[in-house]
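lol ok so funny story. i was supposed to be doing the assay writeup but got distracted and ended up predicting the structure for this chain instead. priorities right. anyway since i did it might as well share w the group, maybe its usefull for someone
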Amino acid sequence: MKRTITFLLILFSVTNTIAQNISNIRGKVVNNENGQPVAGATVKLLNRSQNNTVQTDEDGNFEFTNKAFPLAVSVSYIGLADTTFVLSAAPQNPLTVHLNPASNTLSEVVVSTGIQKIPKERATGSFDHIDNELFNRQISTDVLSRLDGIASSAMFDNRPGVGSNNLSIRGLSTIFSNTKPLIILNNFPYEGNINDINPNDVEDITILKDATAASIWGVRAGNGVIVITTKKAKRNQPPAISFNSNMTLIQKPDMMQLPYMSSADYIGVEKMLFDNNFYDANEQLGYVPLSPAVELMYKNKHGLLTDAALQQGLNELAQYDIRRELNKYVYRKGLNQQYSLNVSGQSENVSYYLSGGYDDNTSTTDGGYKRYNLRSDNTFRLSKKLSLDAALFFTHTFTNAGRPTNFSSLPYARIADENGNALPIDRYYRSNYIQETKQNGLLDWTYRPLDEINLINNKQKTNSLILNTGLNYDIGKGLIVEIKYQYENAQGAGKDIRSMASYYTRDRINTYTQVGTDGALFRPIPLGDILNESTNSFTSQSLRLQLNYSKTWDKHQLTGLAGAEARQANTTLTQSTQYGYNPHILTTIAVNYDTDYTLYSPTGGIAKIPNPYFTSETNDRFISFFTNWAYTFDNRYNLNISARQDGSNLFGVRSNQRFTPLWSVWW
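and the output, tada:
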């Protein structure tokens, strides 16, 4: 709802007055509460013979030329009280017009489309605006968590395993391609991980949700657009230092709340299936794992266990609960720590905003995430009409995978004895088969979940750099030309070391072990750790030229823009696996990836040693032309026309298929 704040000083009617002289008028409109210039204020001459209207520039300045005196002048701005005064003669010095905040009104809401900022009342289409106060109601170290629950039509899927694809805007719009919303950070698409953005740097967020977004940002806006605007120094602000810190303690999940079937009931189902010979085929194979309860039943059936001993064993199993094991040995309390420091200020010609952030998160499964943020955002006023913007964003993240949690589906499974020693669970092979292979010289094929917890060594590092600069020139008569450039680079590296003590490595080595006619063993996959590495790199450059226009007269207001944008994005990805890795001397052992080996498996088969070496590089280019015009009559009736044409090497093979036109009209 638009709230107009009116500040009236003196309303003077000029009648029967003959002009005394003709001169120019220069002035500046400022907010009387904080002394900041008021950009976009309407300055109007009320004389019928000189009914002219101008708007103040970004520094609050305005000018009339060749005007006859006396003059009645009206100054208004949404959110501040209007004022009207009379100039009987040309002022000797530039005027300073002070506007006071109006009572019983709220400040104007301005939304950003990523290309322009407009009042909420003139914004068309479907959108959500989250201001700084609403955004900071929730405490978290990432942006998306703060949006959860406060952004309508933004749906979060927080189920385990969903990962970074947990957000959708107004449902699923893409099936076979990228389903993520388009992220716009300070006027340009952001290709990095949105969770790497420091939420303490965010000023406000606008979510665009319909076809209007596509006419502004093209086909990638089909899944919605999240426009993020970061903080900058406020006008005429003295140097200020702000420090923010928060710590969030995360209680470990209570696994006893999960709706598991009780161990006694589960054993009852297994007894019913056993009586109906459900497990006989697997028992005869000899290598397919059976549950501890079913093992006891077969021992009783073969006369190796009395009925009393069987019942005692089943009763003992019924007392165990895997959920208690997980609570005790797997889950811990988590802790999220966040620290942020920023320094900002503004002089007559320079405004600056410097910020640094540090986050240290530990999950309930001992997973670690650390993030370092450094940001600099500066504006230099080179002249009255020309200004230069320069910004730098740097982010370093470190991620350490947490403990595995999916050990067994048996409700009475145990991963440790009374003394905390690791217990085995038959995962893929039966225990008697494992003992047989061990006697034949193979590595121990036993799976002990509690030991696996301490063998995780999966780490990821990323570095991200964004350089953003732009020139703004006020041509005059409502015309402003902008040229903006952005360079973005992200480098990532991952290392996953599978220790030889881990089940994964022992299983891989055993599976490819060859047995000679004399019983001798040959291991095509050598003893040692298995190293999985990945590297990725992303580099993009964007250049945009844009012309903005704004004019107000009588009851009419016309604003618009037109521009062109060129962009290039290069992505490289490499993945590799090396065997026989020694982490102490950093050596590996070469293997033969071309030979088909007979698998050491009860089911037989042949296969080559997995060689997941993969490398790829893509280079995409985009060119766009866009325009947006809005006409307002009497502050009540709006007409908005928006159009965009995207060209890319992605759309089609033929040149006439590489441009996609998009447009929208709202009134």
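The first strand starts at residue 22 and ends at 31. The chain has eleven helices and 32 strands.
back to the writeup now i swear
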